[in-house]
Amino acid sequence: MTPEPPAAQPHVVIAGGGVAGLEALIALRDLAGDRLKLTLLAPEPDFVYRPMAVAEPFCLGHIEYHALAAIAHDFDAAFVRDALAEVDPVARRVGGRAGTALGYDSLLVATGARPETAYPHAITFGADRAPEALAGLLGDLEEGNAHRVAFVVPAAASWSLPLYELAIMTARDVWGMGMDEVQLTFVTREERPLEIFGAEPSALVAGVLARERIEFVGGVDAEVERGAVLAGDRRIEVDRTVTLPALAGPRIPGLPANADGFLPVDPHGRVWGVRDVYAAGDVTNGPVKQGGLAAQQAVAAARAIAARHGTGVEPEPFRPVLRGMLLTGEDPRWLRGPEGTAPGGARGALQALWWPPTKIATRYLAPYLVGRDRAGHLGQPPVDALEVRRELDLEPAGGGGPGR
């Protein structure tokens, strides 16, 4: 790719204040120095660090909030509070729902995906009032008003790890209160627990489920009814069902989208069919929606943008490496899975296998947050962590096309 001649501080607009958007912001300032003018466009005032949300009902962790205006200031960027509504790639302008109009030389879209309820008769983790509903479930189990709980991964979900965490921590809570009559079932289309990480990490997670007396029912696309889960030919009677949301693409006016509304991108994050527009994270057509992968994709897009504007940075394509930390509620334990085709199996460790040891592993954002918060609470998971890592060869979901 031939870099364009340097312009007087080209303007890069980053739409989205989540992991991908902030990783791109910090990466661009690191890669390009003061040669780019950066604007962060986001609908909410705060960056919400959500991975510990699964631990909130068990009083083992909580969501963190960080002011986006302060983060933008730290990296000499402007912050505009508005939601991306449309893009005019010919005029190189974006419009916001509240009337914002911004011109750009390069645009990076990192607005995320839209969560949707997969099953109306289930508690959907990540939905409004889900923490209260989960706390109510634990109360009903403790008081004997519920005895049978199913954790069901929707067929459309691409990242199932949080539901495993909820199931395992629920089990530890239940058994810790001496309620041996409770029945817990985990239902998923995966043939083996967390099979995306490979055989040996999957076997370890299977061992955790067995130890916690959680029945695993795999290889099925489940249907959820009121009072029952249909798992293939089997009907599982339940008192409560817990599930994850399905994700839908935002279908941004002015930009191409696949059948599910996600932006099709090439390995450098360039959106197919339009010039000077890039995307990263859950808004793209990648088949696995996960924070660490979103951050890696954001860095690839940031390198491509920096190279385009003549900074001398060499573009590097997105090569996904999946890392996961499974919270279980015990003393910290970590597991490294096989990387790609490299020989050797998983190994266990009592120490963290990346630094800082945050729930979402990122090159830029995690070190910044831990350094900004001198208490380091984001770097100290308060409950057990099984870390798994694997290089992935991912094909985009929903079709593709030539990059530009």
Strand content: 25-35%
Reported for the largest beta sheet, the result is:
5 strands, parallel
Distance between the termini: 10 Å
Mean pLDDT: 86
Q: Architecture of the largest domain, CATH level 2? A: 3-Layer(bba) Sandwich
Given as residue ranges, the uncertain stretches (5+ residues, pLDDT < 50) are 340-350, 374-383
CATH class of the largest domain: Alpha Beta
The CATH topology annotation of the largest domain reads as: FAD/NAD(P)-binding domain
Percent helix range: 10-25%
- Individual helix count: 7
**In angstroms, what is the radius of gyration?**
22 Å
| DSSP summary, beta strand count | 24
Major sheet: arrangement of strands: 5-2-1-9-20
Describe the structure.
The protein has 404 residues and is of the alpha/beta class. It folds into 2 domains: 11-115 and 247-308, FAD/NAD(P)-binding domain (3-Layer(bba) Sandwich), CATH 3.50.50.60; 116-246, FAD/NAD(P)-binding domain, CATH 3.50.50.60. 22% of the residues lie in helices and 25% in strands. The strands form 8 sheets. Strands 5-2-1-9-20 form a 5-stranded parallel sheet, with helices on one face. Strands 11-18-12-13-14 form a 5-stranded parallel sheet. It starts with 10 loop residues before the first strand and ends in a 13-residue tail after the last strand. Mean pLDDT is 86; it is low at 340-350 and 374-383.
